[in-house]
Amino acid sequence: MARVTAVEDRDLVQRARAGNRDALDALLARHLDDVFDLVYRVLGNRDAADDAVQDAFVNAMRGLPRFRGDASFRTWLLRIALNTARSALRRRGRRREVALATGSRFADGAPDPEERAVRSAETERVQALLADLPEKQRLAVTLRVYQGLSHREIAEVTGSTEGAVRVNYHLGIKRLKERMQ
């Protein structure tokens, strides 16, 4: 999937701020999959993720007039989504389960049920290993691998430094590799 350029988002943001509902709808639709993916990975529950995504988009629409453009719109929106997911976790008050991938991502046309079962088992194993990582490492790995964000963007989303993100990503990948052997 080709990533949207910041220039295209900037134009849509300007039009949405001017009251253009179609631009706002296009902007939010453009980032829906990324927001859902992140929130679902944090919450591990599809229904909770659906609710959190709605909350994140409402928060983003309300905050759009205050969006300064220091970061890309996508990064800003993912930060809102992460904060919303974290709030949902606090409200839920129990340990989360993190899903590494959704079933639609693995519609790979495997030739037989046995191969699909093996891949499913591997996915479940990786999901469990990822869920076991400390939160900062899990977020760094998830945002880098599955969202394609740079270390700088991850730092903006998580409210951390770029150096801390690099360390957490490295440690998370190292820990995953060790546990997968």
Descriptive overview:
By secondary structure, the chain is mainly alpha-helical. The chain has a domain at 1-97: Rna Polymerase Sigma Factor, Chain: A, CATH 1.10.1740.10. 72% of the residues lie in helices and 0% in strands. The chain contains eight helices and no strands. Helix 4 crosses helix 7 and helix 7 (151-158) packs across helix 8 (162-180). The longest helix has 23 residues, at 21-43. Mean pLDDT is 83; it is low at 94-107.
SSE pattern, N- to C-terminal:
HHHHHHHH
Query: In angstroms, what separates the terminal alpha carbons?
Result: 31 Å
* Approximate helicity band: over 70%
Question: Can you count the helices?
Answer: 8
Structural class: mainly alpha
The CATH class of the domain at 1-97 is identified as Mainly Alpha
Rg to the nearest angstrom?
17 Å
